[in-house]
Amino acid sequence: MTAKIPGPNARKIISRMRRYAYDSTFMYPLVIANGHDCTIEDLDGNRFLDFTSNIGACPLGYSHPDVLEVLAEYSTSGTHKIAGQDFYSKEHAEFVVELASILPRRFKVFLINSGAEAVENAIKIAYRRMGPLPGVSCHGAFHGRTLGALTFTSSKPVHKYNFPELPVIRIKFCTSDSDAEVDAVEPLLKENKVAFILTETVQGEGGYNVASKKFIGALRRSATKYGVPLILDEVQSGVGHTGRWWAFEHYGVEPDIMSAAKALQVGATAYRRELEPRDRSALSSTWGGGSRIDMAVGARTIRVIRRDRLLDNATRMGGILRKGLREFVGKKGVSDVRGLGLMIGLEFETRQRREKKIAELFRAGLLTLGAGQKALRIIPPLVITREEVEQGLEILSSVLSRN
After folding, report:
1. Which of 42, 124, 280, 370 has an alpha carbon 20 to 30 Å from 10's alpha carbon atom?
2. 8 Å CB contact between 49 and 365
3. CB pairs under 8 A, 24+ apart, for 224-228?
C-alpha cells in the first residue's frame, strides 16, 4: 500500500472524472488497473482483496487463464462487435447452447446488453401474452434503472424520484415462513387481473434479503393457478453465486420467464418456449448478442464453473464465510448475517456505521459494497480460496472491532 490512498495517479483520474462525468455511485477512491485471482490492483500499485467481484460480474476473478485465452484469440478480430440481432455469429450460437444447458428444460433465450434490459424484455414478453395490465413486484426490489424496470424497483427512493411508472401492485418480500403476508399474492390475483409477478429470490440492491421458501412457493402456486407468468430476476444472484446455477433452484421451483446478466457478460431474457412472441420482430436490439468477445467469455465462464466444480466451492467457501461472520453479530453495531453460498449480507444497526466500515475496510485492503439501507454485501469471485476467505475474515475482524 502507498502511504496515502488514493495515490497520485488515482487522484488525477478521479479529478478528471469529477470534472467531466456524472458522479454516480462511486463508493471509494479506487481506480482499477489490473487484477489477479481475487485481488484487484489500482493505478498506484495498491492491492485489494475483492469481496465484490464487481457486483457478481467477475465470477472467475481476474486474469483467469481461460478468459485470457479467449481474449488473446479475439485480439486481432476486426469484427468483435456486430449488430447481433441482425447478423448471426458462431459465438452467439455457442453461447446460447451453453446457457441452455443450465436453464430449465425447453427454455429459449433472447440476448440483450444489460440486466435492466433483460428485465425490460422479460416484462415485454409477459405483456405480449397478458396485455398491458398491472405487474406485481416486491417492496425492497431492485430490477434495474431503465424506466420500465425502474417501475418495479423500490429499494431506494433516490432511484425513482420524479420518474414515471407503469401500473404496479407491490407486495411484501417475505423472508420468514411465519410472516403473516407470506400468502398475500393469492387473494390479490383472485381480485385483480395482472400481467405478471416479478421478484428476486435473494434481493440484491435491496440488502441481500433471502426469500422464505413458503413465500416463493406461494408465488409459484398462485401464478400457475391464475395463469400469470412468474418472472424471477437472477441478474445478480445467477450463475453460481448462491452455490447453484440459479438462486431459484434452492426453492424447488421454476420461473416462466427469467432475467440474467452480470456473470454471463451479456444480458439474457430466458422464457418457456410457449411464451415466445409470435411476431418475429417483437424483440430486437442493435448490440444484443453483438459483442462476440463477451459471448465467448460468457460461454467459457459456464464451462469453467462446471469443469472446476465452482458451485461446490461457492457452497463451501460461503459456509466458512458465514460461520466467521456470525462471530460479529451482536458486537460493534452488527445485527445480522444472512445469505446463500457466496452471496452474503452483513447487517449493521445504522447506515452511518455501515458507511464508516466500508471506507475503513477499503483502506485496510478489502473491497466491499453496501446494499439496502444498512447492509454490507459480500459476493467474492467463485474461485476464492480458503486462504483468501480467512484473509478477508481477518481484515473484517480487525476493522469491525474498532469503534
Report:
1. 370
2. yes
3. 225/186, 225/189, 226/189, 226/190, 228/130, 228/136, 228/189, 228/194, 228/195, 228/196, 228/197
pTM for the full predicted model: 0.95
Cα 374 to Cα 348: distance, rounded to the nearest angstrom: 5
170-212, pLDDT tens digit by residue? 999 999 999 999 999 999 999 999 999 999 999 999 999 999 9
Classify burial at 391, counting beta carbons within 10 Å of its beta carbon; exposed 0-12, middle 13-18, buried 19 or more.
middle
Q: Are 21 and 355 in contact, with CB atoms under 8 Å apart?
A: no
Cβ contacts of residue 399 below 8 Å, gap of 6+? 357, 360, 361, 364, 366
Domain extents in the chain: 8-63+309-400, 71-307
Do residues 250 and 217 make contact, with C-beta atoms less than 8 angstroms apart?
no
Q: 161 falls in which pLDDT band (50, 70, 90)?
A: confident
Is domain 71-307 in CATH 3.40.640.10, yes or no?
Answer: yes
Query: In angstroms, what CA-CA distances link 396 with 56, 322, 369, 375, 392?
Result: 20, 12, 13, 14, 6
Read off the C-alpha cell for 136.
406485481
Question: Percentage helix, strand, coil, to 5, in the chain?
Answer: 40, 20, 45
Please give the pLDDT value at position 104.
97
Mean pLDDT of 350-378: 96
CATH architecture of 8-63+309-400: Alpha-Beta Complex (3.90)
- Quote the mean pLDDT of the chain: 95
Per the DSSP assignment, residues forming a β-bridge with 41 are: 34, 47
